[in-house]
Amino acid sequence: MIIDAHSHVHDPLHVHLSALDDAGVDRSVLFPTRPHPERATDLASLRREMSVLDHALGGGGTAGTRGDDGRAAAWRELDEALAAHPDRFLGFGSVRLDRPAAEIAAAVDRDVVARGLHGIGELTPPPDRADLVEPVLQAAHDHGGLPVVVHGFAPTTAADVRTLVGLAVRYPRVPLVIGQLAGTNWMEAIELARTSPNVYLELSTAGLIFAVRLAIRELPSRTLFGSDAPYGDPVVARTTVERVTQPGEVRERVLGGNLAELLHLS
User: Fold this and answer.
1) 0.85 exceeded by pTM
2) Are 255 and 203 in contact (CB under 8 A)?
3) Rounded distance between C-alpha atoms, residue 251 and residue 238, angstroms
4) Which of 15, 42, 160, 210 minimizes the number of CB atoms within 10 Å of its CB?
5) CATH code matching the domain that covers 3-262, chosen among 3.20.20.140, 2.60.40.1120, 3.90.660.10, 3.90.190.20
6) Phi, psi angles (nearest 5°) of residue 24
């Protein structure tokens, strides 16, 4: 089974399904989102969509959401996509990080566990504040080790990567997935993940082909094929993995086997 470990709700949804079909992807992890760059028709409209993303990544919300109305719309879109295509999408749900630990735990209960979702994410702590993820890891631990996905590309810093791995050590039952191969901090992420068995690296939007090759070589059982669609493309992401691997067990694990084990799908 081929599983895209990182994607966001598309508008319209059939565009995403078509991209998955083109890539031969069976299922995809789906995160709620407020920005929709796929709606843009020109540079001005793309700037408007990306400004919402910039706000979230700067600490103005998590998983691309902003304000109560934005979060409600994002959740509604996610619920509709999961209801329409339960055979294709694996839902994850985000929580706000700017709340007390008790409220975060309640949000995980209400918005993730009660909805029957597979994990928590994509979390977007402000730069140099990855410590805010700890209450989420505690809640994930309390629910038997729910996977937690954290944004890894800019503005995530090298200090954030170190903080995330340090937190993972404190919550060894919680699989912690660092997205986008930690951006420009990929070498440090690989090095740290080698000694932290519950840290996984998701490979979407990696800018260097040899970064993907090295990550898979060092962590064949803890690297995850992902596209970050609509920011990336499933066909390109799958092709990247296949260019740096040989047919066989390692390729199959990265393209879906590792995540299937993580989510208890097989």
Assistant:
1) yes
2) no
3) 10
4) 42
5) 3.20.20.140
6) 70, 30
